[in-house]
């Protein structure tokens, strides 16, 4: 019976840790606080230490975090290369029968007077764009280091391809290209939420 309890203890610890992180991140999202990567990594390190795998966490995660954080820092470099952003709205209108899908979707689903479900979803994925891949990688790491290495290899390759694509072919976001027609909804959601915008 003691062996069963000892084998179930890491799972209980992991489940409690996931619940704790979800609670903390949920409160941060509710208050409009950006979830910065260093806090995510520190929280996962503490969980790994509690699981008795702190040293292994540092060994396995250091290369990934170094490259991933470098990608986050280098994203701003693309805007300093001197390449002019491209207008790709003609491609979108060609694909969607002469209409710009951003305008159609906003006119159909966005109401500036209320916070809709889609606004909540957009805020969640915007704030979680960095910590979510790390959290998924951590879940893989706790169960299978092989799956973890495959996951982070694919993630880093995707980041590299995305950076090179944006470096060589930067595009203007719709809310900058059409400022009078397209609303940057995330910037409008946080004030309606009752918190200061951090985006």
Overview of the structural elements:
With 199 residues, the chain is an all-alpha fold. The protein has one domain. Helices cover 71% and strands 0% of the residues. It is built from ten helices and no strands. α2 packs parallel to α7 (131-143). The protein is globular and about 55 Å long. The termini are far apart.
Q: Topology of this protein?
A:
Layout: H1 2-30, H2 37-50, H3 54-74, H4 89-95, H5 101-109, H6 117-127, H7 131-143, H8 145-168, H9 174-177, H10 185-193
Search tags:
71% helix, mainly alpha, 199 residues, single chain
| C-alpha end-to-end distance | 52 Å
Radius of gyration: 21 Å
Instruction: Extract low-pLDDT stretches.
Output: none
* Approximate shape: globular
Instruction: Report strand %.
Output: under 5%
Number of helices: 10
Quick recap of the structure?
The chain has about 200 residues and is an all-alpha fold.
């Amino acid at each position: 019976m003691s062996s069963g309890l000892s084998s179930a203890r890491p799972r209980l610890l992991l489940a409690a840790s996931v619940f704790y992180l979800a609670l903390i991140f949920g409160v941060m999202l509710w208050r409009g606080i950006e979830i910065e990567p260093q806090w995510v990594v520190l929280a996962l390190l503490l969980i790994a230490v509690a699981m008795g795998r702190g040293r292994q966490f540092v060994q396995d995660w250091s290369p990934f975090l170094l490259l991933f954080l470098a990608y986050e820092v280098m994203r701003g470099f693309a805007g300093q290369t001197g390449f002019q952003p491209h207008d790709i709205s003609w491609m979108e209108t060609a694909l969607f029968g002469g209409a710009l899908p951003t305008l159609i979707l906003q006119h159909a689903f966005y109401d500036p007077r209320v916070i809709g479900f889609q606004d909540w979803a957009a805020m969640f994925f915007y704030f979680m764009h960095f910590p979510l891949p790390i959290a998924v990688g951590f879940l893989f790491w706790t169960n299978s280091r092989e799956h973890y290495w495959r996951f982070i290899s694919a993630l880093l390759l995707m980041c590299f391809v995305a950076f090179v694509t944006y470096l060589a072919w930067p595009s203007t976001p719709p809310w900058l290209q059409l400022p009078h027609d397209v609303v940057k909804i995330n910037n409008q959601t946080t004030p309606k939420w009752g918190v200061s915008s951090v985006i």
